[in-house]
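Ticket #4471: structure export looks truncated?
Reporter: QA, pipeline team
Priority: medium

Steps to reproduce: submit the single chain below to the structure queue and open the exported record.
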Amino acid sequence: MKNSAMIDMEKNVGFLLAKAYQRASAIFKEEFEGYELTPQQFGLLGFLWQEDGLSQAELSARSQIDRTTIGGLIGRLEKEGLVKRLVHPHDRRAYQVCLTELGKAMEDQLAPLALKTLARFTAPLTDREVETLRHLLNKLRS
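Actual output as written to the record:
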């Protein structure tokens, strides 16, 4: 028997995670229609709503997005007028990413959409299953 015959793709964790991510992205796209944001850009805004003025390196570490990619994401948020990069007050080689007034105001519009998106995505699960999923995913990412 070939090794590939032993792999049941419909039970493969990597395949299932990829399919779940695709479903989450599709729901995000529907709920955020009219906003020029990707899930990754929204995530960066979320970190900045929690703590404005993070350095680009801190955003990279918290979001677990590599430094090259994070620069492009921040650049697109800048073009949309949601953030601005300033020279970091304690490290002239680094940038501090700050929300603009528009970026701050968007929290009131986007946070409820994010909650609605999450509710749609996790609708098949009980509250306990959602907590278990969160716990397991945190274990896998560390």
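Status: closed, not a bug. The export was complete when the record was re-opened. Leaving a note from the reviewer for reference: The chain has six helices and three strands.
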